[in-house]
Structures are given as C-alpha cells and as structure tokens.
Amino acid sequence: xxRQLAILGLGYFGSTVARELKRHDNQVLGVDRDESRxxxxxxxxxxxxxxxxxxxxxxxxxxxxxxxxxxxxxxxxLEASVICTVHAKELGAREIWAKAHSDAHYKLLDRLGADHxxxxxxxxxxxxxESLNYHAMVDFIRLGEHEFIVEIxxxxxxxxxxxxxxxxxxxxxxxxxxxxxxxxxxxxxxxxDTTLTRGDxxxxxxxxxxxxxxxxxx
Length: 218
Hints:
The chain has helices at residues 12-23, 35-41, 56-60, 78-90, 103-111, 120-133, 156-161, 208-215; strands spanning 4-8, 27-32, 47-50, 69-72, 96-99, 116-118, 137-142, 147-153, 175-182, 185-188, 201-207. The protein is of the alpha/beta class and 218 residues long. The strands form two sheets. It has a six-stranded parallel sheet with strand order 3-2-1-4-5-6, with helices on both faces. The two termini are 41 Å apart.
C-alpha cells in the first residue's frame, strides 16, 4: 500500500531514504533549501520543493499534517534539526522520524517528541563491533536489552563440530533457530535432523548470552 511521506533535508541520508521510498512506489515529497539538491532529485520524486525547513511559514505551506510520516535530516546542524522538529510537531505531523548526530542530540530529539530517532553512526558502530567480535555474523536486530535476532554464516569450524541442527546444542528455552538460508532457498523452522553445510546462514532469535555462547563455536 502506497504511503505519503515527506523528507525534510536532502543530504546523503535524506536523499537515499527518498529514493528508496519512491522505489517502493510511495508518494514522496523532498524539501531542501539547496537548489542543487532539489534539482538532483526532482525527476525521481512526486514533489520537490526549495524551502528553508527551519522556517515555520514555509513548513506550514507544505501541509505536513497530511503525510503519513515526516523524516528530518539536517546535515549535522543541531539547531536546525531541533527547530524543524519543533515546527513539524506543532504543525501536526502525524509521525516524526529524525536523524541524530550525537548522544545529546538523540536525547534532545526524544524530549521534543520525535516518534523515531535514527542514529546511523551509533548503529553502524555497534554492527561493526559485533561483526569484528563474531566474524561470521551477517546482520542483527535488537529486540530489547538482551534479546536479539541474528543472522550468522556457518563456518568450516562450526560444520566440523556440528553436522546437523541437533548437534548445535541449542537450549530452546533461550534460543530458537528460526530459519536457514541456503542460497536462494529458505528453510523455515528447520527440524533437528536438518543438516548444516558451510555457507548456510542461520537466523536465530533469543538471549544475548546464549547467542554469544554459540558465537564462540564459529
């Protein structure tokens, strides 16, 4: 189902989000005070507007209250980000997504009532650290303080120790094997007798401590 979405700030992050949203057939408005940025995206979006997104009158003319969600990305300018967030909130934006550039900025956006705060540098740092620590990890999603979904690639070392799901030694009270991705094939809820081969991607959900214990086998 197509959504109506407004991107306020067309830096690298904002323009990437705008392009991807449009690729998924959404109705996308892009706004930036930089004419060159707007011109670069104009033919890819439904509407592209040159405007100062810190100016309340300019934002009011965009009718942000009619959009399903508004994303704010202001190129590291904390003051502009805060002003834009406050105006968007006061103008009735239904759902505000804002990009944070520091811990303090994150806290401030949270206090101002942003519904979702994106912190790319922090999130990327966590992902890189986890990947360096567990070199076979492909991706992960944090569900809570100690609950994660992770995707790991089976290594030669692991398959030498474990030739099937049963021999992984997973305690199902703490960890569940949701699926195995094998090339283009996805094996959902694999049984204990499912064999493991090098290069399989295991999708697991559960407690961080249990995931780390499994990671030590990789």
